[in-house]
Amino acid sequence: MSASNARRPYKRPMGGWWRKNPYFVEYMVHEGTALFVAAYALLLLAGVFALGRGEAAWNSWLALLRSPPSLLLHGVLLLGFLYHTWTWFNIMPRTLPPILIGGERVKATTITRAGLAAALVASVLVFALAARLAS
Amino acid sequence: METFKADVAIVGAGGAGLRAAIAVAKKDPKLKIALISKVYPMRSHTVAAEGGAAGVVQAHDSLEHHFHDTVAGGDWLCEQDVVDYFVAHCTEEMVQLEHWGCPWSRKPDGHVNVRAFGGMKIERTWFAADKSGFHMLHTLFQTSLQFPSITRFDEHFCVDLLVEDGRAQGAVAINVASGEFVMIEAKSVVIATGGAGRVFRENTNGGIVTGDGMALAYRHGVPLRDMEFVQYHPTCMPGTGLLFTEACRGEGGFLVNKDGYRYLQDYGLGPAEPTPRNKAMELGPRDRLSQAFWYEQQKGRTIEGIHGSAVHLDLRHLGHKKLRERLPQICELAEEFMGIDPAKAPIPVRPAVHYTMGGILVDGNCASPLPGLYAAGECSSVGIHGANRLGSNSLSEICVFGKVAGDHAADFARSAKSAPSATLQKQADAAQMRALSLVRGNKGTERISVLRREMAETMERGCGIYRLGDEMQKTCNELENLRERYKRVKVDDTSSVFNTEWLLAIELGYQLQVAQAMAVSALNRKESRGAHQRLDDYKLRDDANYLMHTLATSAGDGPPVISYGEVKITHLPPGVRAYGAAGEAADAASKAKSAEGKAP
Amino acid sequence: MKAAPRTIRIEVLRYRPEQDKEPVVQGFDVPFTDDMSVLQGLQYIKDEFDGTLSFRWSCRMAICGSCGMMINGVPKLSCSTFLRDLYPNTVRVEALAHFPIERDLVIVLDDFITKLHKIKPYIIPKEPRALSQGEYLQTPEQMAQYEQFSACINCMLCYAACPQYGLNSSFIGPAAMALVHRYNLDNRDGGRAERDPYVHSEEGVFNCTAVGYCSEVCPKDVDPANAVNINKTESAKDYFLRFLKPKGAQA
Questions:
Q1: What is the pLDDT of residue B600?
Q2: Which of C39, C72, C64, C66 lies closest to C53, judged by CA?
Q3: Which of C79, C54, A52 is nearest to B502 (CA)?
Q4: What's the number of domains chain B is made of?
Q5: Whole-prediction pTM
Q6: Mean pLDDT taken over chain B
Q7: B143, B310, B428, B550: which could join B100 in a potential S-S bond, CB 3.0 to 4.6 Å?
Q8: B461 belongs to a structural domain
Q9: Chains adjacent to B (≥3 CB pairs closer than 8 angstroms)
């Protein structure tokens, strides 16, 4: 566009874009829950380091895990995990090629439900395994 | 003023304009094409066509059947040699679109499927669900992107043609975004600007369908032919006029009155059967169906609503699944706009203005009497629709004749020399001054919206489904008066950037001239034929006096001068137009007669 | 028969480059009936109150794609958004987000048009075919592969819904990607290799962070987010395989 004419397109600023729409706020929140996953990974990593430094370090790491603030943190992290899982499976249908069963396309809600069910089954199995190892 | 030197300038980038541009580009990649459109090409009104495009494919169908349906459907006001060419080239064009990617609906074996349409003896309508025009337009637009010889002038509003040495040599346009003028020099010009349905009040057309190209040609002395024939589509949304495709009936939909009675059987279209029969009942031609609505209304058998009378389009028996698959857009329109699920309730519909059968006078090569000027699509009158167009012939027309126009405009450009730029520049400057006078020092008093409304109302009163001599005369007088008032049109917006009010004012000028050509042509046709039906002393078709094309030639500020031209009849002499059982009986009789004739 | 019309407040973000330094809000009280769309509300304003208000529109039936705008902060087609559903609240109308405003409700579309040219949105035949050979065969199942992505009306609502496009307009974006996918999936087409370099480029699919709002606002259920995200897999493969190729080989 030439400078000689009267056009003067106006570019709106993007600052604070994610606050302008509830959908974006939710997006930032669910993306934010990824930090919870990262935090728990660091926690586990600390355990691995403790194990490497000998029995005393390992035991004090275990003791730290059993402390009330740690239990509270775990509770919060679990909630973050659950929300992250929920939103992850909600977006999943948008990332998959169409799945056809008997010539009919599988609905998005079906894919989400199947994913959530698989996550639930896997969690129960891991929990059962952990319970068995602990006993 | 910016200048662009093209070989072929095309005004309008809907289906016909894009097809013409591709034709030129394929014919000779060295020819520079300027494709000018007041909107982005994908916004052109081809996008709104729903039902489909005709092209003979089935073994038991024939070109002769398509020819016969078209000529009889047009009440014999068709150029039969042109119809011959048309029917012979429809299928090839449909296949061409398929090769370019158009997602035509298919049969299970992968071949293209066809559906039934009004006034067509055998199913031959190619369709892409009920978004045929949308898919055709996007296919053509996207295909056009691969040709570097096409330079597009998107959102450039054409204000005049350049005519020098007695031939068309380009166009002048406003760049809408900046308000600057562009002169496009060309050795030939194709007009493909679509119809003019917006001169009426209740219509199926987009806001851009304002007859621009018709008016541009008309102002340069090119006659507008058969402008009195304006098609009312029988099934439209009350109030807005939005279209419910004929394919609703092609798929088996019923039209019923307030008593749930399939009233078309009372108007020579019966017998009423539970499944569609071609050329009968709901699959009769559009003019007859709209006329039947009018009579039902007179008899008080219509349903009254806030937007006037309506009848019901009943699709319930087609079932949810078929409706979603074959008529998804119809479902969407009914649900979103009217809150009606067509699988559960009937849709109220009434006729609305849909299509202008007439247009810029051109021959079978799409050449107008002005050398170097071509026209294709709804803005043109190439002679295939006669007094009433059959559904699905217009989408085929834009392809068949878009190509013809492109090919011939290319040939003309290759043999023509352009005029010296200086003389063209002088014309362009004058055009610019005229257009600018609307926004510079405008002391007008007449609001655009008021003039537009009065024009639309008087057109509806005088040139509706049924017409009366004195009403038409009144409309002619009012249009003359409106044109006078238009000289004092008021434009509040004096800015340069995207000044839509300025464009509306120019469009209104185009519309008033086209409306006047329609009304005066109608007043002078003292018979009833196709979409031109009179209730005064001229209720019948009068082949002795009016088997003629009306030609409206501009006379400046005054009403057009009306003259008449011959209709080309090659091998189907005027006969009785009959549909339903009567039509089949007539067919059988003529077959028997011709068999008799052939017997030794 | 006619019910007395109610009145709704419509606030429009105006921008007239020749007089406004930046956009300003202007309010109008518009009488409306139950079947009136936001577009008809704007037409009423233009016809009765202020002829200078500028907006694009044409078909009125949600197929031409002209009349997209932000309605109460959400990208919508104004022709198929009804005032009755917004009453009694004030309606706030603004040009589509993330695009430069040309004037009032009109956005600058040049960027998308440039992208359209770059994606080669046309059949590049796998096997050329003469017209005399008739149509290519395509079963309903083969058509179902791409049909949804061919339904895009280029209304630009998805770009107005994509914050990544807002932050970086060189991103190919949802609608253009849906069209790429549409042609790649068509059994008549063999042009994928010609389209891939752009899809896999810096401007390509990996600018998408799966916000998913583009698909939410799409008026034609095209699901452009799906087109973008499916292609991420292909793009990732392309990226990593690049390192396995000997130097100097064609990507």
A1: 47
A2: C39
A3: C54
A4: 2
A5: 0.96
A6: 96
A7: B143
A8: yes
A9: A, C
